[in-house]
Specification:
Layout: H1 3-19, H2 22-40, H3 49-78, H4 81-87, H5 92-121, H6 129-153, H7 157-174, H8 189-192, H9 196-208, H10 216-241
Helix pairs in contact: 1-5, 2-3, 2-5, 3-5, 3-6, 3-7, 3-9, 5-6, 6-7, 6-9, 6-10, 9-10
Length: 244
């Protein structure tokens, strides 16, 4: 079995088993739609859609990817089906890349929901699409690897959801999604720079409305750094806890 065939088989199986199921499709669509309409239609007064868009895209990706991966990995480990994958003659890195690719794609599609409504409601011709697309992809990767880190750290599905919320809800306020980092209290501002979503959201701001506060090149390097760190830690935890 070649590496590519193994990768494709695991990815297609996960897409068919989890991501194309009606409850997950509805979750993937309804959640970002709710967030988007709540912000875009919250008042009859003009809404700064380009100002809200980076936060909405980031939030849709974060909640979609972490929820899906934390649940699917934890569920498969609980059902022992993940143990059979670990016994397969597949490199562990390839296996985990395949298991996480479905969630990364799911996150990218989640990002399209607020973009779709924004296109209908305002002129987005000023967007720099290349950095926007790259940042959406990088936010999906880091959020998925955060979900992997959470899934490997717990035993039960409900623990995965609870542990996910421990990271996700503070990130709404700490990552500059809707509250500028410079407006946060100085005491908690260092926490913002320890969260990968801060850098992804700042790249989106650079691409959408030019309201970034950090260098885009530095943001790209730092979010890639967080992606590598989260993946490496997760692999080490899998070897330590699940492979004996």
């Amino acid at each position: 079995m070649t590496t590519w065939i193994a990768f494709k088989s695991i990815l297609l199986k996960d897409i068919k088993t989890y991501y194309l199921k009606p409850p997950n499709i509805s979750w993937g669509l309804l959640f970002p739609i709710s967030w988007t309409l709540m912000f875009f239609l919250r008042t009859e007064a003009p809404v700064d859609i380009p100002g809200f868009l980076p936060g909405l895209i980031s939030l849709s990706i974060l909640f979609g990817t972490t929820s899906m991966l934390a649940v699917t990995i934890t569920f498969e480990k609980k059902q022992a089906s993940f143990n059979r994958l670990l016994l397969a003659p597949i490199d562990l890195n390839t296996l985990m890349f395949a298991k996480t690719s479905g969630a990364i794609i799911f996150g990218v599609f989640n990002a399209l929901v607020p973009l779709f409504f924004a296109v209908l409601l305002t002129d987005l011709s000023e967007i720099s699409w290349l950095p926007a697309i790259v940042s959406i992809f990088l936010i999906s990767i880091t959020s998925t690897f955060l979900g992997l880190f959470i899934a490997v750290s717990v035993k039960e599905v409900f623990e995965a959801q609870t542990f996910s919320n421990f990271f996700r809800f503070p990130m709404i306020f700490l990552c500059g999604l809707f509250i500028p980092l410079q407006n946060l209290p100085k005491l908690i501002r260092p926490l913002s720079y320890c969260l990968p979503l801060t850098y992804g959201a700042d790249i989106l701001k650079y691409a959408i409305n030019g309201d970034n506060i950090m260098n885009p090149g530095l943001n790209f390097l730092l979010i890639l750094f967080f992606a590598v760190v989260l993946f490496v830690i997760s692999i080490k935890n899998i070897k330590k806890k699940w492979i004996k």
